[in-house]
Amino acid sequence: MARADYRMIRPGKVGRDEVSNERDARQHVSRSATSACRAEAELAEARDQQAATAEVLQVINSSPGDLTPVFNAMLERAMRLCVAKFGVMTTFDGSRFQTVAWHGVPSALADLLAKAPPDPGPYSAPTRMARGGSAHGTPRQLQDACHERCF
Fold first, then answer.
1. Could you tell me if residue 132 is left (phi over 0), alpha (psi between -120 and 50 degrees) or otherwise beta?
2. What is the rounded CA–CA span in Å between residue 77 and residue 53?
């Protein structure tokens, strides 16, 4: 049988232990609520990613041999997941980058991309990825890249 322990606390006579316990309980509830919200957001993001993947796979199945609709679908789904206003997708053929899809791109940028294909510098994120590295550089890596370039 469960036992409950209740104590009467008179107004104005709250001890330090009671205040500390209440503060700890509030902090615990707050941390739990924050964790639950974070988990809920992560679950929603995972579901969105799965839905986008399924949609792209449907496009792949419906257009064998034609990559243009696949690139367009991938870019549109990525933009939706990232809540982006516009996007550009490029491929790398081993020596240069080529724009294969764009969506919602401002006309001035679209004109520029049509006239001059992207040519990222040797220390840019696309070039690091093409070499098998990460798009994200640590501050030290970026500093080293700048030093190599400048000196």
1. left
2. 8
